[in-house]
Amino acid sequence: MRRTPLLSACVLAALALATAGAALAGNGGIAPVEPRSPNADGIRDSYWLILAVVLAIFALVEGLLVTFVIRFRRGRRQRFEDGAQLHGKSSLEVLWTAVPVLILFAIVAFVFVKLPGIRNVPSADAAAGRLDVAVTAHRYYWQFEYPNGAVSVDTLRAPVGQPVKLTLTAPDDDVIHSWWIPALGGKIDAIPGQTTSTWFTADRPGVYKGRCAELCGLLHAEMLAWVEAVPKPEFDAWLEREAAAQQAGTSKLGEQTYAGACAKCHGLAGQGDIGPRLDGSAIASDPAGIEKVVREGRNAMPTVGAAWSDSQMDALTGYVKERFGSGG
Amino acid sequence: MAARAESTPAVPDWQRGKVASWLVTTDHKRIGLVYIVSSGVFFAAAGVMALLMRTQLATANADVVTRESYNELLTVHGSAMVFLFAMPLIAGLGNYLVPLMIGARDMAFPRLNALSLWLYLFSGVVMMLSFLAEGGTAQAGWTAYPPLSSQQAGNGMDLWILSLHLIGVSSLLGAINFIVTIHNLRAPGMTWTRMPLFVWSMDVFAWLLLAVLPTLSAGLTLLLLDRQAGTHFFDPTGGGSPLLWQHAFWFFGHPEVYVLILPAMGIISEVLPVFARKPIFGYKAVAFSSVGIAFFSMLVWAHHMFTVGLPNVLNVYFMIASMIIAVPTGMKIFNWLATLWRGNLHFDAPMLYALGFLSIFTMGGLTGIFLAAFPVDWQLHDSYFVVAHFHYTIFGGVVFGLLAGLHYWWPKLFGRLLDERLGKASFWLMFAGFHVTFLPQHFLGLLGMPRRIYTYGEGGLWEGYNMASTIGSYVMGLGVLVILVNMAKTSRTGRRAGNDPWRANTLEWYTTSPPPEHNFDSVPYVTSPRPLYDLRRRLKESDAV
Fold first, then answer.
1. At which of A247, A268, A302 does a domain end?
2. CATH number of the domain that B82 lies in?
3. Is residue A219 part of a domain?
């Protein structure tokens, strides 16, 4: 019986060590990942405040629990000897009702202060301007459409220091997905038939990885997204060049589309996996056939390309034919 | 004498057999036992599913189960743990104990009670057999969000819906039965404020089920119509809204977690006083806070929907409402702590599980505060942080509470005490395994791991935490095996319990273990929430005289 408090202490110590270890590993999951955007920053500040409050309450409750377990253990007393017959005390009960209310309202107040900086999309009139990108979530890829008509798949390029507003949706016949790049802020769902929005301003160049956060089917785990933040002049030049190349059919859009929309089922090398093998198959050399299948779907295959522009469709069919066509 | 014999309904011979007597029984104790044993079977099945998922996630890019199987496992693991294990185990303990604790001879409607049981068993069979449907069973998670759920091919999803419809009817009938029993069949003198706290919690459990379960059944019906009758309630191609389902589901789904936790809290409120040799601290606060929790639980559902782009005013409302619910929960925790203060604590297995509940559930409640603050939820939502949070409340809370109750009432149910050494060993395995499994999942969520992914490519910390989590889950599996060994071993050789091995407080300990079919020859007049404590004191006083 004596060993019980000792064991509790050991378990608590082990937990503390594990937690400290995680902290030492450079935020190994003790808080949201290093923020790279002001909204993610505001979220993390709120997180730290709540963590501080919660750790204090945790220490109080678990401390009392362990203290009472040690202090009031049976020891040498008779097994069925009565403890103190206390039925309650109103003042104490009022205290532990009122104090939590005050603590919770302090948390709510802090969240209110942080909220505008997290939620409000910066105005387009601001000095830096704003980039508006339309995001469509598909099974199982992300399509981004820039203001000048250029598109990209799974990787969103963004300028450093400029607010980027994302307007999200999913095709009517698709399912719900959720946009989540942890370093650039919280999640927002992409829902068929509705639009939602979020924003970020990347504060330095880098590639930020994220994942779809709403179970969307077989390949939910493979629905990844990247935001590649580059200096603004570089971004502006790229965007113009890319739009022109996509118009002219000389961009890498076909390869990108294949990797995002097709390869997760048919394999990067067209070797087949969930979907049939494409490498060397008859349909690979048949652009009209490919277009029909990706626009209308077939069996378990969703209508991945129902809304692709002609230039994106041509880019894809051209890429597939060149890569996997059997000399047709 | 002759008249008396005539008034007893004749039991046909075929109903007296060892098997047949269980099939036709309307005795609340036998029904309770069938509930408890079957829920144990489903716990084992759903637990194995969890271990399979943990094995798949132990290392990056693993290939233990297919993507399809993984989605089936996560769906049925969740559905079965909630609907086929936790609720029926509560129904089983409630069935066995509520009539005994209020000094009644049976539930108010014994045959309705049997109907609830059989609907539950059929529901379980349907859910398990749905694995054999063409295309497999449901793969959209226990939350079954459309359009994913409405689009799934094959009939696995339809069978899943049928299973939940059956358990819905079963639970509603059971809830009505509990309410009528508790409101009408209490022993002389047992006023509302002298009722055992477990019975209080079962009453609130039943009312809450009655209030919210029809919403789930309605939602399921619409989902079935969308799938099979060409309607478009949740289908945007026909003008429907996928979010409508989320509102219907969570209006049920959030209270459901309180449906599960309130009876566990009721058990803790019975166990702590007995093993501290004290009355519960603040009886009325503990009883009425359950009512408060149940009421507020119906006003917070959209905190599960903070990422769907609700208007700000709704997000703010649901944040504040969700925080308010922490207050009655906190009251209970402090009342339980105060119950330990100046007690004479002994640490038998039921007490260890109750203390484990207290320490773990506190952590689960505290991580809920992060999720209630909606901007923080935007970061944590649908990540492993959430998985960790709800396992701290549902496993650390509900399951530890139910295990405290099982260890506490086992001698009443079977007449023999469980082995204390095995009981303590199982507790420490479960307690340590639990934290090793679920503590790292908080960190995984914060690192960016979404829930319900069947694999991940990241190594390093991701893999480390996942491996720890998997090891922990196997330790818990071992803990469950020790519990089973304990139950099997003591079934023949365990020490005889007698009426009241714990010198407990409530009426179920006034009768024999196990009780006779009619429960009591007589019931003492109830003068406080602790009738047996009063009885012992009166006996002592009369001895002294």
1. A247
2. 1.20.210.10
3. yes
> Structural domain of residue B142, as residue ranges?
24-235+247-544
CA A291 to chain CA centroid, Å, is 31
Cα–Cα nearest to B364, from A205, A16, A58, A108? A58
What's the gap between Cα B96 and its chain centre? 15
Measured between CB atoms, does B147 come within 8 Å of chain A?
yes
Q: Is the pLDDT of residue A291 over 80?
A: yes
Give me the domain span that covers residue A102.
3-75+89-119
- Residue pointed to by tokens 């040690």: A70
CB B500 within 8 A of CB B274: no
Q: Which two tokens stand for residue B150?
A: 């409405």
On whether any CB of chain B is under 8 Å from the CB of A207, the answer is: no
List the alpha helices (DSSP H) in chain A: 3-24, 38-71, 90-119, 232-248, 253-257, 263-266, 287-296, 310-324
Q: What is the pLDDT of residues A119-135, one digit of tens each?
A: 999 988 777 789 999 99
Q: At what angle do helices B110-129 and B87-101 cross, to 10 degrees?
A: 170
Contact (CB, 8 A) for B409 and B353: no
Catalytic residue, candidates B163, B170, B217, B426 = B170
Q: How do residues A79-93 score in pLDDT, each as one tens digit? A: 999 999 999 999 999
β-strand partners of A190: A177
ipTM of the complex model: 0.93
Residues 6+ apart with CB under 8 A from B272: B280, B336, B339, B340, B351, B354
Instruction: Please give the helix or strand (H or E) that residue A145 lies within, else none.
Output: strand A141-145
The structure's pTM equals 0.95
Quick check: B231 and B222 in contact, CB under 8 A? yes
Asked whether residue A113 is assigned to any structural domain, the reply reads yes
Say which residues have a Cβ less than 8 Å from residue B235's Cβ, sequence separation at least 6: B146, B147, B150, B226, B242
A135 strand-pairing partners: A144, A168
Residue B477 confidence (pLDDT) above 90: yes
Could you tell me the two tokens for B293? 């929790």
Measured between CB atoms, does B335 come within 8 Å of chain A?
Answer: yes
Flag if B431 and A172 touch (Cβ within 8 Å). no
Residue B442, exposed/middle/buried by CB under 10 A (0-12, 13-18, 19+)? Answer: buried
CATH number for position A281: 1.10.760.10
> Residues of chain B with pLDDT > 90: what percent?
96
